[in-house]
Amino acid sequence: MNAIVISETMDDGAVARLAAVHPTHYDPHLVDDPAALRAALADARALIIRNRTSVDAPLLAAAPRLRVLGRLGVGLYNIDLAACRARDVDVIPASGANADSVAEYVVLALGTLIRGSFAVTEAIGRGEWPREASRQGREMAGKTLGIIGFGDIGSRVARLAQGFRMTIVAHDPVLPQDHSALRETGARIVGLEELLATADAITLHVPLAPATRHLINGARLAAMKPGAVLINASRGGVVEEAALAAALRAGQLGGAALDVFETEPLPVGSPLAGAPNLLLTPHIAGATRESHVRVSQLIAGRVLVALAMT
Q1: CA 170, CA 150: separation in Å to the nearest integer?
Q2: Annotated catalytic residue: which of 128, 184, 193, 264?
Q3: Mean pLDDT within 79-84
Q4: Catalytic one of 25, 205, 283, 292
Q5: Residue 108 and residue 137 in one domain
Q6: Residue of 50, 171, 235, 294 marked catalytic
Q7: Is 52 one of the catalytic residues?
């Protein structure tokens, strides 16, 4: 009997913590073997996943005793929440545990794009000396950072950007004007069009929903300040990828960094491939050694509490 099944990578210490209390089946490759996963879930009361395991009605049907679903992350796009509610399965995300990792990723990507002087290693190794081209980088100090979505991660980005003496503007329709994070960071709430027109750098921190799909499309890219940079470490689909690639190739933007994509892995032949001044990473903004431990321990603790209450 497996009281707890873990289908993707989890910190060994957190796995041991779970196994000390309940029979635990840990196999980070279960996600790639649907039949083995369904078999392992036959008696399970808890399932712990990352972002590759799809939890839908058929999978839940293979787990009649399941009561707790732990998500090693915050995005719930791979979980059928309605099906979980219908089965009375408690869905537990690792809210906040990787927020610092994402915020640091954003600021580091922003600095790399703004300075624009770190892509000449191979040229220097070949004996070239591209000093004139490399000295055209800009400073972060005095630039305006636009944050779309001023929740936990967005406000952490703002706090880090303060250290570089950046001016912060934010767009978040649901955030109260007197929210404490605005006071702490000196951020000013503005309309989306004002943010697009005035920000030297824009970072996205919104969920993927009908209202945010292709939020940054061709028209809004055209409305951005010439030479501005764009960072998306939120959700794939928020940025219209073909339009972004076209804007980069036209020299309209100063650069972009994407950690998330409409289809993952990025398909061969994507318009993003080969676009200039573009940084691509494989959905790892929140993945660091430290966040891996924090996320795993947080979910282990919450799953144990939830199981004790069922």
Answers
A1: 6
A2: 264
A3: 97
A4: 283
A5: yes
A6: 235
A7: no
